[in-house]
Amino acid sequence: MVRRTRKCDAIEENRSLDAKVSSEISQQTQWMLAVRDERDRAAFAKLFDHFAPRLKGFAIRSGASNAHAEEIVQEVLLAVWHKASQFDPHRAQVSAWIYQIARNKQIDQFRKEDRPLPEVLLVEEDDTPDADQILALEQETQELHTALGKLNPEQRELIEQTYLGELSHSNIESLTGLPLGTIKSRIRLGMARLRHEMKGLR
């Protein structure tokens, strides 16, 4: 009987702490508590609407394409739903918890592909981008893809391998068999053309 009383006291204490935390934390964390404790789909929909564009901006800044960024958002928010029971508001705000899930997923992907980690994944996410920033990022990404499409195939392939694939010139030399001087020359000329095309689009 004593054990049961202690257990009940512990449960009540945890509920009291959660109630206290709920009065002090962000609305987003309160939504997360509703998802965790009640599997509240309406609260999850609010979380989705709030974090989806911010996570997409984060993914784009770490090197993902627009389409890949959308896939990352879906995977991360699906993980949020399934891992909701692991969320502890006493340890972190929901924004920090969700961004950690996103960061871990992207780090795992980069390691699987044996690619160097972008700087954005090496530091904690402090300020999430707002809708205007995300729109600007998407516009810049679209402009870049349009400009790349106007290069000749040889230049475009080398630029994508260097800047999007993050391969060194020596790596490209091994992959393509092209002389190092040819690789450097094509990249230099391609970048000059790319800058010209980007100016034209703006």
TrEMBL record:
Keywords: DNA-binding, Sigma factor, Transcription, Transcription regulation. Gene3D superfamilies: 1.10.1740.10, Winged helix-like DNA-binding domain superfamily/Winged helix DNA-binding domain. The keyword Transcription regulation applies. Residues 142-194 form the RNA polymerase sigma factor 70 region 4 type domain. SUPFAM superfamilies: Sigma2 domain of RNA polymerase sigma factors (SSF88946), Sigma3 and sigma4 domains of RNA polymerase sigma factors (SSF88659). One of its GO terms (molecular function) is sigma factor activity. Pfam families: Sigma70_r2 (PF04542), Sigma70_r4_2 (PF08281). GO terms for biological process: DNA-templated transcription initiation. Residues 47-115 form the RNA polymerase sigma-70 region domain. Signal peptide: none annotated. Belongs to the sigma-70 factor family. ECF subfamily. This is RNA polymerase sigma factor. It comes from Shimia thalassica. The gene is sigK_1.
